[in-house]
């Protein structure tokens, strides 16, 4: 799942500016749980076969096919989503 942050609630950072992952996950726990709840309750959304990496990557490739501005290539499961244009 991807939860988009806002300026009003930035991600937690450590002194050198890198992400404080544990603190950020704790701060966004409600939003993360809500994203999963909404996804699971939406019967119109095709779900991955399982939440294992291989099934999720295959599902994301199907869902995002043609959405990338970079030559309409499918995501590969290893790259940064921003490299595929999903920050626009």
Structure report:
It contains three helices and no strands. The chain is mainly alpha-helical. Helices cover 36% and strands 0% of the residues. The mean pLDDT is 79.
How many DSSP H or I helices?
A: 3
**Count of domains:** 2
**Strand tally, please?**
0
Structural class: mainly alpha
Helical proportion, percent range: 25-40%
Mean pLDDT: 79
Task: Please tell me how large the radius of gyration is.
Answer: 15 Å
The main β sheet shows up as: none
Termini separation: 18 Å
**Amount of beta strand:** under 5%
Order of helices and strands: HHH
Low-confidence parts: none
Could you say which overall geometry the principal axes of the C-alpha atoms support? globular
Summarize the structure.
The chain is mostly helical. The chain has helices at residues 21-27, 29-41, 53-64. It has two domains: 1-45, no CATH class; 53-84, no CATH class.
SSE blueprint and pairings:
Blueprint (H helix, E strand, L loop, with lengths): L20 H7 L1 H13 L11 H12 L24
Descriptors:
single chain; 88 residues; mainly alpha; 2 domains; 3 helices
């Amino acid at each position: 799942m991807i939860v988009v942050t806002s300026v009003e609630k930035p991600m937690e950072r450590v002194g050198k500016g890198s992400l404080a992952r544990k603190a950020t996950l704790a701060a966004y726990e409600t939003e993360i749980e809500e994203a999963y709840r909404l996804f699971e309750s939406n019967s119109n959304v095709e779900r991955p076969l399982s939440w294992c990496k291989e099934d999720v990557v295959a599902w994301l490739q199907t869902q995002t096919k043609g959405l990338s501005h970079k030559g309409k290539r499918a995501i590969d499961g290893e790259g940064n989503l921003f490299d595929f244009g999903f920050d626009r």
